[in-house]
Amino acid sequence: MLKTIGAILVIGAAGGFGISKALQFYRQLRQLREFYQALELLKCELNYTLLPLPRICRMTAARVKGTASAYLLQYAQKLEEGLPRTKAAAQSMEEVRGLTLPNDAKMALLELFEALGRYDLDGENRLLQMTAHRLNAAMERCEAEKKPLAKGYAVLGFCTGLALVILMV
Q1: Alpha carbon distance 87, 112 (integer Å)
Q2: Do 29 and 138 meet the contact criterion of CB atoms below 8 Å apart?
Q3: CB-based burial of residue 97 (10 Å sphere; 0-12 exposed, 13-18 middle, 19+ buried)?
Q4: Closest CA to 112 of 67, 57, 59, 70
């Protein structure tokens, strides 16, 4: 009886780890979509309101949800505290909980928020468009990899648990 319970716990733990790793792909895709939507809203706010950058970030954060909203609020707060854009962008990226973006998307966003507010309106629009293009490419890649890798991690987790149980017996 005790061995059976132990076997179930080992398989459940390994399977749970595999499933949590698989869910990370879905979380990444959702966060990429949130940031893409935030970029579109940022572009509209920059073009039509001409407000200071922290205020634009707060207004955009109110209209999006999830980690994109948390990042924009954190970034706006850091800018209002007087931090330079480069430090504000990097610290905000580190402090937002649950941020699981792919590295290429993180780098694109860091480059955007380090340079945002430095150029004229045309330059800002080009910068936002280039970042949106890079996020779109990351979304397409993530979408293509999502199903096979997610299934692979889930199956690998359960198979590892089963192998451990076989080795224990």
Answers
A1: 13
A2: no
A3: exposed
A4: 57
